[in-house]
């Protein structure tokens, strides 16, 4: 069989075989893609029941379109009458293989079970009951996505049952009581089987198992399984309740439908994540922790805001390098700037037990800096100090404050840590001052501010050509300008690459510079191995750098590696819990993973923090449409559209959503806004492509994407996973473009 061409499929290798047939990996020579071909076993070709069951599998699965169900392309027949099904080919392993290695951790098991329940809910909603749910029929892709396989025993609503009443069907260990008795089975039998698999995933053993099949059936009909907790002491009561409800022998006592099971599993996942966080926080309670708030500007002219923020940020960057001290990230700590928030409240929100606050008064070349370290629990000062110095002494003052904090918090300093604590990237006070001004504007991400930031970073470099952090600032500014469309990407990204390269020539240990280079490798060079290598190096050099975890999460979901992406996104959020962008990344990762409800849930939390945050608004409307919440999506777009008038990405997302929702006039109005904006400044043609995709205008959409390819538009990195292009994913031009980008 290997090497033969059947229809337009060239057989490449054998993947496996079972009772019904043999599965081969093949190349679809028409669409240039890998597929799996399942052939009905030759000895069964004359068996009418087997042929009906085989055709039934193709009909059942092809009637379903869901991320957790294997895609069926077609059913065919060879010249000699052998039936075959062409289906999607995935890289990964079966759940059976995964369990055989070792029991899964609780969260992983719950996530997989949740996806199984979600896929079954789709099938049941179409009147299709699988009736042979077992680990061998659950495939897990390398990206952690569940695919339900083998609908050969499925019953379609209104179809005559393939087996007679009184005949057992399915795999005994996973059979429901009604199946074991040969009675009519419905969707609740699939729920029973899912409960069996969840039990097995967590414990590594089956709840009902004997040496003989009849003995196993006896256990299914008469015995209750041992408690999960007797095998896994950490199993929560909520997990026990879910499994117990799945495995009720009285069919009416089980979950009413798979959607109800899915909701309970999602709740379990959230509680497991929360429990993990609480255990981590509990373990960290004995470890010193600190939030450094931006210093207050007490200068007569009130013109030292950049300096006040800069000093606080540099203290954060110095302290975060100490292994014995946990430090709240800048974005989260700075959320409390100019807010009269109780110290205890700050400590609770940032999970820290101390807070550093202070003030700066500058007059001519003289500085007065006050700093106080406060115990969150009782509000008392642990330490305070006042410094009256000249501006040239600012480096020494920072060192004194850092060392005083370490001393008062009883953090033990190793030799290398002491050196990193007082490490200076420049001794030039003017360069340092210009760098702080650049940092001030860069952190605000506004277009005009980014241009000012770049000017200040370049001036800092002119004052000290060996100032590595100033090169990092310039690289990150160019990177953000390229992604946000403030300048053409083929102009900004090469400059970002050069600046990051120069920073690393000066100091190869700078995690921030490696992250900058990874960003350019991802969004401009489309060099996926280099991007991943740089992000990993950045995290290795500076594990507490939340931005490196954030950007790595973006890379991972662009590659379709969703579970890895979610882990990085959550790690980034743990480091910087109040950052709007970092919180939005978790929602966006769920969106690309086709987990719409979770995406909406995460993005709604971001919008609770800031209802006008454009990225969250742009990404929440499509999942709302996908889940049938059309009116909510339209209400959001109407409210936010005036704020997004100069933000091309948000307009593109809104236009696509209007098109999918059938509001073609609104989608065309958005196209007009993008055209008008393009007459004033650079606008990526990919944003027009989003709207055209929503309108179903494929030819013009592909022209825009091709233009985007010529311009190295950064948003093309999401082509592989973006739902906006699902309608055209099989288009030859689209497939060709993915190949050129390396996706």
Number of spatially distinct domains = 5
Count the strands? 17
For the record, the CATH class of the largest domain is Mainly Alpha
Structural class: alpha+beta
- Spatially, the strands of the biggest sheet line up as 1-2-3-4-6-5
CATH superfamily of the largest domain: Tetratricopeptide repeat domain
Number of helices: 30
Low-confidence stretches: 157-168, 277-284
User: N-to-C terminal Cα separation, in Å?
Assistant: 30 Å
Described by the principal axes of the CA atoms, the overall outline is globular
Helix content: 40-55%
Description:
The protein is 53% helix and 12% strand. The chain is α+β, with helices and mostly antiparallel strands. The protein folds into 5 domains: 1-89, Phosphorylase Kinase, domain 1 (2-Layer Sandwich); 93-280, Transferase(Phosphotransferase), domain 1 (Orthogonal Bundle); 287-424, Rossmann fold (3-Layer(aba) Sandwich), CATH 3.40.50.10610; 428-543, Alpha Horseshoe (Serine Threonine Protein Phosphatase 5, Tetratricopeptide repeat), CATH 1.25.40; 551-741, Serine Threonine Protein Phosphatase 5, Tetratricopeptide repeat (Alpha Horseshoe), CATH 1.25.40.10. A hairpin with a 4-residue loop joins strand 3 and strand 4. The chain is globular, with a radius of gyration of 29 Å.
